[in-house]
Structure to design on (1098 residues):
């Protein structure tokens, strides 16, 4: 029975580890300026914890194999060094790993979330609601119109509660369901929620941030490749949570300028 | 021979009384008809970008759907206006035919439907994905449920007169109206803004026109016989 | 002048009379413990069925499930689960499993039964409060289950019930009407029961130990239950007011968790001044210690059972206890790691990640102590032993994935994905369950006076062990590919390629669920018809094995045991294969 246990555990450990290492299911291509640091942190953690995983499962397996009761009356043996060696091993090895990862990781984190956006960023206002994302560009006047929750009217697609009758700066605001951005340009998003908590997640951009009702949360990044990717909601927000998506379209600066002009003409 | 005649007479009487009992067109009945138009500048109807639902975005790729809160037609006509007898109603018949609401390519078809109290209403989902119907009723009980692709139609009805806005929680641009009226004398204007209410016995009537953005207008009209009276409604439109 | 004798708290009571007093409204901690275990059994069966429905829907969303329409005509018209019903099933699954299984069985169930016996007492310090705790827990369960049958259905905001979704009431959508209020009431009642229970556990451990049972000589399971009660006393004391505030927001028009200006269901909500983050802080300040409440009894149980079947002492018992205390203390400092991306000041993420990573150290030490205990052992591979060894394996798997999530930069990518689901199911849904299984197979002979079938037990172990790896290891791969959690369907372009793996998981889950029927059959049959169990079938040392199987109503027949040594005397160190804690027993020579 012990040998069976050992074999099963060893197979499980090696197969699982192999599937991780083979990258059959893995992160999609990284199209962000900051993402490589996250990917590196993830790979390092994968290697060290993978080693720890395989070693401890194999130790369990080997001991289960070897130390079954063979009714031969032999004495039991204490682990060499006793508990002290375990404490030292765990504290030193795991402790060192923790220190390293924390030190490096906190710099990666700070680089994304604790640095201010580039002053030349393209500013986009984002509103999440049950169950869609809408993106607002300030239009040719460069000013966002004020939002008034009591004026929100979805039937006329006034998702942001703008007041174009009385607010001139609101008249040229461009509201679209697709985050259209130029490549290699810093983007600064302002995340607001209309109703309940939501979240903004683009795996390829290595970016994720919750929307919190009552707060306006900044998020910034730069996309380094053109293409179209999905933005999905990762904060349970109600029945339509699974269907709450938008697309981010990264295009060349020229294409983006043309797109902006076309949209402005439609307002 | 007498038996034969008795059968004929009996059948005629039976049919006539059946017709009378169902309130068929009364002996003398008039009609109110007209057009609903607007003055001023209406808001621009914007094309709806259904990007978040790729199935629907594909369906409208060549001809985008526009918002439907103010739909205009040739000659400054207004579509989707509900015109009905709001006071003095006579000769109404209960609504028994099943009314059908379709959800197709992420739109409510029709945009405005009218039912009478307890008239059966069937809601169908013709799209390959889930919709969520949420009638925002205040007088009737409000409800909110999903209809996955392939689910059976929802059989429902409304009991009390009310103008009920309906939204799809999952597709924010989907909006429509369920109008519950206590009369069978109603019409919903088409592209040309015209309407016709027939089968009105002699009497004094109040006709109301309701447009979802511009509100209601009323006019009184008197029918004395079988004439057709013209009643036009003009709404003042504003761009915002 | 002799000092007055040190009073030893004793607790005498007469044997119970009458059917109701003996079996229903019993004051006997053993009956109450079994009542808790039976409640947890009903709860786990319910929770498991819910998970099958969820997995079936994820794998084949448009296939109708026969009969489901009867339970919920709106939620599953034509047998097809609607998105809201899926989320309701998920919410109830999580709530039932975390509270009524993982907090109830290892702690309230086995703890109630065995803590007094293991310290040599006749009963808990407050038997009436103990009985009240059980009945309040039962009422809490019934209130929760009632949510299935109210008009709008059960809540769909997850077991985490984030505000404002959970706080605004009906406007937030289906399930967020009365169902959510019932949820909050149920949890409030559960907290009350747990606080009362914690009082009992702590008082009994400190005051009712028999002669010779110093704190250092207590079995490790008792230590774990004691430390768990202290954690619970503080944690549940925070969850209870949080749920009350939530109820007030829902029914009394307050705005603790709801800010101004929210438009839900086309209505401007009449609230102002509240903070959704406040709910998250209150909930997770409870929520993180809660997961240690769920696993710590398992640590104690494994530490208690492993030496019995290794026939050697637990390696480093004092280090083990110190680690349990360290984990308990640290558990209060890490709650923000559930909130790295929540909108808190980003600097706090670094602050919270440090203790989260530091907890890895005592967790690693305890794992190494178990592995070190097996080194050089003479293992008897009984069913409880197999579950102990399996526990170590699955705890390693679950703990390692936590290492990723503890780092905010990596959490940026993995938060809200199936990687998290795999992680917490391994540590809670598998490891904690393995602790419960080990405890059941180990203590069933003592509780029911009858042995469970070893053959069926081993079949149960193997099918479950392999099954759970097939169910939960793939979830980590899904998470790495960015598969978002809490989705009722996978309609996004990038998620469609993952559906085959989801189908594999579903099939494995159904298969593993079916294997639990073996356990159920074994448990129920043995309870009434198994071969009679001797007093000490496993040749173990702690006080429960010094009394009959099952014990008499006052545990030791009116003669409280006197303890001469700790529980760790296995392996012939003093010339005997094992030495029981209680004095009167003669040393048994090695075989």
């Amino acid at each position: 029975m012990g040998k069976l246990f050992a074999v099963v555990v060893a197979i499980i450990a090696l197969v699982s580890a192999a599937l991780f290492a083979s990258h059959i299911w893995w992160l999609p291509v990284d199209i962000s300026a900051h993402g490589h640091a996250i990917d590196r942190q993830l790979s390092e953690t994968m290697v060290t914890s993978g080693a720890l995983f395989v070693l401890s499962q194999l130790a369990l397996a080997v001991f289960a194999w070897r130390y079954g009761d063979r009714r031969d009356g032999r004495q039991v043996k204490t682990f060499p060094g006793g508990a002290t060696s375990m404490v030292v091993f765990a504290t030193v090895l795991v402790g060192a790993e923790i220190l390293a990862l924390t030190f490096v990781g906190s710099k990666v984190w700070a680089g994304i979330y604790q640095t201010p956006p580039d002053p030349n960023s393209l500013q986009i206002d984002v509103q999440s609601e049950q169950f869609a994302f809408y993106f607002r560009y300030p239009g040719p006047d460069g000013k966002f119109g004020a939002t008034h929750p009591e004026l929100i009217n979805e039937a006329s697609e006034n998702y942001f509660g703008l007041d174009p009758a009385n607010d001139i700066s609101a008249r040229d605001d461009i509201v679209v369901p697709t985050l259209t951005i130029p490549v290699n340009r810093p983007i600064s998003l302002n995340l607001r929620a209309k109703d309940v908590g939501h979240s903004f997640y683009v795996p390829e951009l290595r970016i994720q941030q919750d929307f919190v009702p009552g707060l306006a949360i900044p998020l910034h990044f730069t996309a380094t490749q053109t293409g179209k990717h999905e933005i999905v909601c990762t904060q349970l927000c109600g029945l339509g949570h699974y269907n709450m998506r938008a697309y981010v379209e990264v295009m060349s600066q020229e294409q983006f300028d043309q797109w902006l002009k076309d949209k402005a003409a439609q307002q | 021979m007498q038996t034969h005649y008795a059968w004929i007479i009996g059948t005629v009487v039976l049919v006539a009384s059946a017709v009378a009992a169902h309130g068929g067109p009364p002996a003398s009945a008039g009609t109110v008809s007209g057009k609903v138009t607007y003055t001023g500048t209406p808001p621009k109807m914007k094309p709806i970008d259904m990007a978040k639902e790729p199935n629907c975005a594909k369906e409208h790729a060549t001809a985008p759907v526009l918002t439907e809160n103010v739909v205009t037609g040739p000659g400054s006509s207004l579509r989707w206006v509900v015109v009905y007898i709001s006071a003095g109603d006579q000769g109404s018949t209960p609504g028994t035919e099943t009314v059908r609401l379709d959800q197709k390519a992420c739109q409510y078809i029709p945009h405005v439907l009218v039912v009478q109290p307890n008239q059966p209403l069937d809601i169908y989902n013709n799209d390959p994905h889930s919709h969520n119907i949420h009638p925002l009723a205040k007088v009737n009980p409000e409800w909110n449920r999903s209809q996955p692709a392939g689910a059976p139609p929802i059989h429902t009805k409304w009991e009390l007169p009310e103008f009920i806005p309906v939204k799809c929680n999952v597709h924010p641009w989907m909006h429509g109206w369920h109008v519950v009226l206590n009369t069978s004398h109603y019409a919903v204007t088409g592209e040309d803004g015209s309407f016709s209410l027939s089968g009105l016995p002699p009497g004094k009537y109040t006709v109301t026109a309701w447009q979802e953005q511009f509100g209601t207008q009323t006019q009184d009209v008197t029918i004395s016989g079988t004439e057709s009276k013209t009643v036009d409604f003009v709404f003042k439109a504003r761009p915002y | 002048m002799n000092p007055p004798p040190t009073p030893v708290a004793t607790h005498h009571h007469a044997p119970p009379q009458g059917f109701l007093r003996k079996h229903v409204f019993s004051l006997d901690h053993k009956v109450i413990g079994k009542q808790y275990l039976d409640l947890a059994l009903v709860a786990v069966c319910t929770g498991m069925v819910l998970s099958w429905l969820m997995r079936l829907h994820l794998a084949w969303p448009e296939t109708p499930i026969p009969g489901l329409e009867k339970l919920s005509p709106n939620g599953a018209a034509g047998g097809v689960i609607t998105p809201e019903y899926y989320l309701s099933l998920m919410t109830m699954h999580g709530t039932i499993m975390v509270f009524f299984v993982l907090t109830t069985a290892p702690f309230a169930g086995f703890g109630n039964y065995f803590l007094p016996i293991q310290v040599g007492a006749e009963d808990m310090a407050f038997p009436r409060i103990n009985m009240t705790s059980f009945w309040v827990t039962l009422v809490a369960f019934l209130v929760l289950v009632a949510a299935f049958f109210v008009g709008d259905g059960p809540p769909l905001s997850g077991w985490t019930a984030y505000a404002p979704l959970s706080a605004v009431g009906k406007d937030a959508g289906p399930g967020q009407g009365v169902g959510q209020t019932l949820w909050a009431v149920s949890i409030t009642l559960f907290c009350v029961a747990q606080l009362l229970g914690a009082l009992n556990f702590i008082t009994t451990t400190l005051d009712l130990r028999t002669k010779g049972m110093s704190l250092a000589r207590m079995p490790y399971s008792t230590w774990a239950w004691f430390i768990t009660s202290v954690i619970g006393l503080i944690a549940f004391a925070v969850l209870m007011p949080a749920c009350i505030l939530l109820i007030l927001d829902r029914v009394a028009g307050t705005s603790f968790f709801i800010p101004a200006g929210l438009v839900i269901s086309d209505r401007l909500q009449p609230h102002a001044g509240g903070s959704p983050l406040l709910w998250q802080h209150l909930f997770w300040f409870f929520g993180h210690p809660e997961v240690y409440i769920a696993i710590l009894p398992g640590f104690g149980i494994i530490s208690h059972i492993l030496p019995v079947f290794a026939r050697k002492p637990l390696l480093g018992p004092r280090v083990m206890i110190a680690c349990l205390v360290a984990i308990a203390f640290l558990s209060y400092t890490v709650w923000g790691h559930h909130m790295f991306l929540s909108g808190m000041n980003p600097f706090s993420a670094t602050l919270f990640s440090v203790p989260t990573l530091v907890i890895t150290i005592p967790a690693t030490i305890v794992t190494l102590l178990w592995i070190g205990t097996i080194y050089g052992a003479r293992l008897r591979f009984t069913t409880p032993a197999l579950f102990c060894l399996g526990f170590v394996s699955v705890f390693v798997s679950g703990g390692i994935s936590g290492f990723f999530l503890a780092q905010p930069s990596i959490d940026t990518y993995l938060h809200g994905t199936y990687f998290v689901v795999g992680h917490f199911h391994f540590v809670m849904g598998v490891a904690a369950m393995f602790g419960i299984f080990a405890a059941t197979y180990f203590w069933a002979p003592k509780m029911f006076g009858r042995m469970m079938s070893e053959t069926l037990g081993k079949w149960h172990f193997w099918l479950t062990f392999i099954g759970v790896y097939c169910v939960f290891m793939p979830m980590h791969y899904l998470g790495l590919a960015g598969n978002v959690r809490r989705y009722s369907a996978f309609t996004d372009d990038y998620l469609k390629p993952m559906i085959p793996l989801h189908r594999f998981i579903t099939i494995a889950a159904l298969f593993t669920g079916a294997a639990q029927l073996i356990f159920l059959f074994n448990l129920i049959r043995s309870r009434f018809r198994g071969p009679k169990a001797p007093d000490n079938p496993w040749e173990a040392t702690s006080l429960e094995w010094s009394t009959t199987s099952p014990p008499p109503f006052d545990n030791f027949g009116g003669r409280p045991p006197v303890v001469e040594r700790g529980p760790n005397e296995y392996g012939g160190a003093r010339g005997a294969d094992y030495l029981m804690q209680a004095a009167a027993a003669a040393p048994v020579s090695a075989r």
Notes: Chain A is about 40% helix and 20% strand. Chain A has a mean pLDDT of 94. The CA atoms of residues 200 and 209 of chain A lie 5 Å apart.
